[in-house]
Design a protein that fits this description.
This protein has 273 residues and is mainly alpha-helical. The protein is built from nine helices and no strands. It starts with a helix and ends with a helix.
Length: 273
Amino acid sequence: MDPLRAVVSVMLGLVLGSFFNVIIYRVPRRESIVHPGSHCPKCNRPIRAWENIPVFSYVFLGGKCSGCKARIPIFYPLVELATGFAGIALYLFLIAPALAKFHSPVMMATSILQSLILLIVIPITVIDIFHFLIPDVLTLPALALAIVCAFLPGGITPLQCGLGIIAGGGFLYFAGFLGERVLRRGNAMGFGDVKLMALVGAAFGWKTAFLTIVLSAFTGSIAGIALLVHGKLSKDHKIPFGPFLSLGLWTTVFFGDKLISTYWALVGRIIGH
């Protein structure tokens, strides 16, 4: 990969990350992401162009609004940085290989759709952390698009798409239903999580969806136990599952094959002994 493409990928990611910050703030509040323009949520002062440069403006302004001097949350530049790194990673490992092995426009479109889903989980993660919410506006349109793509020749098949939806959304729904019966408490699993995993299954297939859930449950359990042990989480308190699903998806897409081969290698050694 030449330096120019690397810089372009990062810059596009940073700009998209800035837009994600708008989504993170406005979507949970049911505000338009178009109007009004960017402004300080404390004093409503319009943000000028030079104050809206991803990451750099935050550093230049010292993390404060230039008008009222209110503190700008640190997650804003962190989201931009994360999306910048995600941009170059997706180009290297998804878009560039798809271009090199270009067989059909549908396959290219599928790679782009998968990349967009991997990017979408960034604002989903932050929104779920702060609001315990995965907005339908971020998952359902992408799910509809994934289903449409499945009926076009040259990409994921309708059967793979259907099995993916069942393995992702269906399995998570059943787990939530079972959790409600066992824990005798409603909302053991939010429907936003179910819709997100239905989207993952529809776009990536059932194997990716299933491994994503397994990894998410594993990391979520470890985090929950650690928080309980350190007194940071009460036994009747819930933690957002979206961030763990996002982490599980990224891990599966980039390291899933390696993890599975390592797992079976370990199983083979244990059986051999």
